[in-house]
Amino acid sequence: MTDNELRVLILREVGNIAPETDLDQIDPASNLREQVDLDSMDMLNLLIAIHGATGVDIPEADYAKMASVDDAVAYLRTRVSQ
Amino acid sequence: MAEFCMPALGADMVAGTILEWAVKPGDHVKRGDIIAVVDTEKATIEVEVFITGTIESILVPAGEMVPVGTALALIRDGEVSAPSREVATPPVAAPTRPAVPKPAISTSIPRPVAPVTPMTRPPAAPLRREIAPAAAGRLRISPVAMRMALEMKIDLSKVEGTGPGGAIGKADIERAVKSGVSAPAQPAVVAPAPPVAAEVAKPSVASAERKLAMRRAIAAAMARSKREIPHYYLSTSIDMANALGWLQAENLKRPVNERLLYSVFLLKAVALAARQIPEMNGFWIDNQFKPGEAIHVGVAISSRQGGLIAPAMHDVDKKSLDEIMSSLRELVKRVRAGILRSSEIADATITVSSLGEQGVESVFGVIYPPQVALVGFGKIVERPWALNGMLGVRPIIMTSLAADHRASDGHRGGLFLAAINSLLQEPQKL
């Protein structure tokens, strides 16, 4: 998957979880949870959705590496292409 | 012959709109079956029947708004089945709860008999309203259709509703799937970067009317709580190192979709502690404490459309951590989708509010009447902590109790918090 495809995937799932969010307003470089007010259940659901779409299983210890959209894309990029 | 009446789905509901009937005359129903879908200020609710029998006739058509207590259907051979007594709650059966000071409106309305007289005296907003088409802001959709749409990730803005008032039904979703409206796999992925947001943006915007109604429902319940309930507050710091350590080790073994959140420990610990200190679990009704006959924990969940709902998770003390996790997931999903079951709305015997996600360290709760206790959990923070003469850094969660002083005293409340603490120290036993 390309970076752009990953980005679209992440934002689409954020939109599913938090439908009231204006996805245009999300700054890809800053913390996603703070911007969209995602709680731990929302984050888990986001990771489950990403796992479902990409097959990448993200261990709990790596949650911190998925803080922003940019971070998440960078994290997934190396793992998806393998 | 038994009447099935509009249930009081929440302490301050005065009326509800029948969105859809799930049964027709001649259908056999048993306790717990969903027989109708009702729209209230707070949510769309799948109403479960509390008796077993055969539907004789339906007295109120879909689309009609009627006050709580109105006979909706007649059920033949419908004895109230014994199990309905196991919950000493605002029973779905009871049209109005005597202890509740009834808003003027429900006392001034005669109980209509078939044929139903629609309400003619509207309060703030006209009560008798037809099902508005989707243009009113909130999507009209049956719960079944909503679930299908969520599961199949269907863009509801592209589905034409053919139900009452343009509501989307199961058939509409099936039609949409056949005609390829569904978004299987990842169609959005092929979109170029700029239109991303437009591509994934959801059409549903909560209407201002809905938000206002939700706010009013919360206002009424909370004002009643502060007016009637003499709250007392206790709090204690609980070391979560054992629980989090166990959780981390457990989650390491699990794929992402089977992982647990630490909230499941909190819910289980509260439920088991409520078994030990039963004065925390139940209701203050008719000037006396009525202990809950089961432990149904209300879980405060943000609706994301503005407002808060605390639906009941049933028999939490008897559930495994995995069962609590899947119930929690299910409840959050349904709250966010705005669809709940009547038993979830009415049954909670104690409430848990975990505001930690917002970053606050402590919560001072307002009890949901007629319940008598609310347990609040703050954010887990690392703090210096002395244990066995040693100082270390431990993850600490501030745990508070707001309890009804009519039903219990501080001493028992203290024991309750202490019980929660000791339960959380042995997570493997939860």
Characterization of the model:
- The complex is a heterodimer of chains A (82) and B (430).
- Chain A has 82 residues and is an all-alpha fold.
- Chain A is 57% helix and 0% strand.
- Chain A contains four helices and no strands.
- Chain B has three domains: 2-108, RNA polymerase II/Efflux pump adaptor protein, barrel-sandwich hybrid domain (OB fold (Dihydrolipoamide Acetyltransferase, E2P), Beta Barrel), CATH 2.40.50; 139-200, E3-binding domain (Dihydrolipoamide Transferase); 231-429, Chloramphenicol Acetyltransferase (2-Layer Sandwich), CATH 3.30.559.10.
- Chain B has a six-stranded mixed β-sheet.
- In chain B, helix 2 (143-152) packs parallel to helix 3 (170-178), helix 7 crosses helix 8 (321-337) and helix 7 crosses helix 10 (410-424).
- Chain B starts with a strand and ends in a 6-residue tail after the last helix.
- In chain B, 42% of the residues are buried.
- Mean pLDDT of chain B is 78; it is low at 81-138 and 183-206.
Fold blueprint:
The complex is a heterodimer of chains A (82) and B (430).
Chain A lengths: L2 H15 L14 H5 L3 H15 L14 H12 L2
Chain B lengths: L1 E4 L9 E7 L6 E2 L4 E6 L4 E5 L2 E8 L6 E3 L3 E10 L23 H5 L34 H10 L17 H9 L17 H5 L7 H21 L2 E9 L1 H12 L10 H14 L5 E4 L2 E4 L5 E3 L1 E2 L5 E2 L2 E2 L7 H17 L1 E3 H5 L3 E5 L18 E15 L2 E15 L5 H15 L6
Parallel strand pairs in B: 5-16, 12-17, 17-18
Antiparallel strand pairs in B: 1-8, 2-4, 2-7, 3-6, 4-5, 6-8, 9-19, 10-11, 12-15, 13-14, 18-19
CATH homologous superfamily name of the largest domain in chain B?
A: Chloramphenicol acetyltransferase-like domain
**Could you tell me the mean pLDDT of chain A?**
88
Distance between the termini of chain A: 10 Å
Specify the structural class of chain B: alpha+beta
The secondary-structure element order of chain A is HHHH
Overall shape of chain B: globular
Which parts of chain A are unreliable, with pLDDT below 50 for 5 consecutive residues or more? Answer: none
Low-confidence stretches of chain B: 81-138, 183-206
Radius of gyration of chain A: 11 Å
CATH architecture of the largest domain in chain B: 2-Layer Sandwich
The biggest sheet of chain A amounts to:
none
* Helix and strand run of chain B: EEEEEEEEHHHHHEHHEEEEEEHEHEEEH
Portion of residues in beta strands of chain B equals 25-35%
In DSSP terms (H or I, runs of 4 or more residues), the helix count of chain A works out at 4
The first-level CATH class name of the largest domain in chain B: Alpha Beta
Rg from alpha-carbon coordinates of chain B: 23 Å
